[in-house]
Amino acid sequence: MLAPATARSACPKAPGGLPDAIAAVGCTIMAAMSAPSRRQFLQNVAVLGAPASAASSQAAGGPPNFVILFADDLGYGDLGCYGSPTIRTPNLDRMAEEGLRFTSFYAAASVCTPSRVGLLTGRYAVRAGQPNNTGPDTVGGLPLGEILLPQVLKARGYRTMIIGKWHLGFQPKEYLPTSRGFDAWFGLPYSNDMIPPWVKTTRPLRLYRDSEPVGELSDQSDLTPRYTEEALRFIRSSREQPFFLYLAYSMPHLPISVPEARRGRSRGGLYGDVIETLDWSVGEILRALKELGLDDRTMVLFTSDNGPWHNLPPRMLAKGVERWHTGSKGPLRGAKGTTYEGGFRVPGIIRWPGVVRPRQVCMDMVSTLDLFPTVVRAAGASMPKDRVYDGADLMPLLRDGKPSPRSRFYYFLGETLEAVREGPWKYRFARARSESGPVKEPPVAELFNLEWDPAELYNLYDRYRSEAERLAAAMKRFAEEVKAKLAT
């Protein structure tokens, strides 16, 4: 469902005798998730007839550039344009106003490594062979036979760079980004907490430049500014040829920090300072693209690898880390490390002047899995033919406002398939979880209608048993296909 950024005038009627209260709650939440300002509504009137053509834009300036801005553990409710009452994000709000904002945008997983696997391969992590997180003592990583997005783009003459967190394996060197299609890398090999006192390891946290460490990282406060400087340098040096920039911020993954000059600016506390610093970074990148005349040749995506990190394990509650140093899931249930919506559904904003019409909100289901085929085809490249992909090309949606091609989304936690969404229906069969992991009680069957009830408040399993059974069968078939587990 693609529309100008205006809320629906009426709520869908609840069929099958569903209590009106459920539909009313869903309508209220959806309105909050998608409603724009009055000024945005008035601006819509003037732009509804403005055509957009990816072909004409690319013909005028050559192949498009791609910039993926990937936050770490940023929640659905952490941005102004997604309803934050205390955190100011003027640059991301403007990016949404000048482009397309998704309300059902799904990360490929609700934890770090498999989410990045899905983004860069277009395949569920369990299919790609890396469904769990890597760490400082991990040998190996994402299987070397997997084809990554930068590898396909390099074959089309693109310059490629990753800045920030890699987290797909770093030893031996064959697993580093510069051996997986990226021309250059500046950043961290894994999460910024994978050092004492948060994990048991003797390995210090090191910054890498390409394939070599360039120093230990004892102070993380200037990470976002340093990443931003690297991004600006790469963009300016690449202006004469197509480029792919993957900026994987380390923040707001715990432990959070910002430069001293940026502390205390946000009403959202230290966490708010971190998000507002990310917003500043996005503004600097958008400004550089405009100044260099690359605006209408560049697709920029901002999203997060998963939802906010709630239910912190004891290892994180060390000196300097507080429970409130994490983000907001907005109206959603669950968080990072769960298969409820708060773990998977994240902000998703795409800006591409001349291709993506401004001031749009899409309620259709899309995923970071879809970025691989979208970018590959927009670049004029071909999809590899020797493997199965789980993503779909979004260009008809972006360019022409067509419905999303995604009809289903599967929710994995490690090697276990716990839920599936098809249309408005989400079926979940999983054990409850505590801070230390799954509890002993048997799995619970849950069925939610995410259009009536995006907060997953009402289990409709008993009322719509046939829908649940149909989706349960689909889950079983897909688990068999990708050799995943099901809860027992």
What does this structure look like?
α8 packs parallel to α9. The chain has a single domain, classed as Alkaline Phosphatase, subunit A. An eleven-stranded mixed sheet has the order 1-11-3-10-9-2-8-4-5-6-7. Strands 12, 13, 14, 17 and 18 form a five-stranded mixed sheet that branches. A two-stranded antiparallel ribbon has the order 15-16. The longest helix has 23 residues, at 269-291. By secondary structure, the chain is of the alpha/beta class. 28% of the residues lie in helices and 19% in strands. The chain has 13 helices and 18 strands. The chain is globular and about 60 Å long.
Judged by helices, strands and strand pairing, the structural class is: alpha/beta
Count of separate DSSP helical elements: 13
Q: CATH H level: which superfamily?
A: Alkaline Phosphatase, subunit A
- Strand arrangement across the biggest beta sheet: 1-11-3-10-9-2-8-4-5-6-7
CATH architecture: 3-Layer(aba) Sandwich
Share of β-strand residues: 15-25%
Beta-strand segment tally: 18
Largest sheet: 11 strands, mixed
Helix content: 25-40%
Properties at a glance:
488 residues; alpha/beta; Alkaline Phosphatase, subunit A; 5-stranded mixed beta sheet; 18 strands; 19% strand; globular
Question: What is the element layout, followed by pairings?
Answer:
Elements: E1 2-4, H1 20-34, H2 38-47, H3 54-61, E2 65-71, H4 90-97, E3 100-106, H5 112-121, H6 125-128, H7 149-154, E4 159-164, E5 184-187, E6 206-209, E7 212-216, H8 223-237, E8 243-248, H9 269-291, E9 298-304, H10 341-344, E10 348-351, E11 360-367, H11 371-378, H12 395-400, E12 408-413, E13 416-422, E14 425-430, E15 433-434, E16 437-438, E17 444-449, H13 465-482, E18 485-486
Helix pairs in contact: 8-9
